[in-house]
Amino acid sequence: MDMEAFFALHFDLPREGPGTEADVAWACQLAGVGRNAAMLDAGAGPGGDVNALLAAAPEGSVLTVDSHAGFTKTARARFAGDARVTARTGDMMAQSGPFDLIWCAGAIYFIGVTEALSGWRSCLAPGGAVAFSAPCLFQDAPPEAVVDLFEGYPVPNADGLAAQVAAAGFTLLGTRVVSDAGWEAYYQPIEARIAELRPDADAALVAVLDEAATEIATWRAYRDAFGYLICVVQPE
């Protein structure tokens, strides 16, 4: 994939993954997040979940970390003047904490669930938790279009995700499926950007736009077969 074209599509979007404020609120409540919690938004993109995190911990703090400087720049601008928010470009696995909550929406699969949880264990404050969303199969035999979408990535079912959590020595406190509203909150702005960019797109950008359009169409056609599962976990 041409990354310049990818970031042209994703520039200044409100969020970089599916989800809603209600998802964050549910995870924070289950994790027992307090009013003054220190939180890491790992793989934060432009900071689409920061307001919801701060609603759960109004006297707390959020460190957003993303590997793409453009997303960090957007997050800094979005929360300029709010001393509770620090936006940093870097490795989401290289933060020291301690954090009462590590929130990772849709980015943990880049590392692997077991690997990421194992790496974050030392960053958690006593009683701290990790909440993450990850791809999940809802059917034993998903349609070929769904398999093709993930290009060989071994998407687990809910039991598989639970096993990956256990392999890291964590306890699964609860799970929640990301709603259709959460997916549309992510996809509708992308669709608008595709329509805006397509008339003048070169070949590299057309390829990225087509891939994104295919992803959206696949989810809408087969959303009963796959989606994202939010997991809230704590070290054993």
From TrEMBL:
It holds the Pfam family Methyltransf_25. One of its GO terms (biological process) is methylation. CDD domains: AdoMet_MTases (cd02440). Gene3D superfamilies: Vaccinia Virus protein VP39. InterPro entries: Methyltransf_25 (IPR041698), SAM-dependent_MTases_sf (IPR029063). Residues 40-128 form the Methyltransferase domain. Keywords: Methyltransferase, Transferase. GO terms for molecular function: methyltransferase activity. SUPFAM superfamilies: S-adenosyl-L-methionine-dependent methyltransferases (SSF53335). It comes from the Bacteria. This is Methyltransferase domain-containing protein.
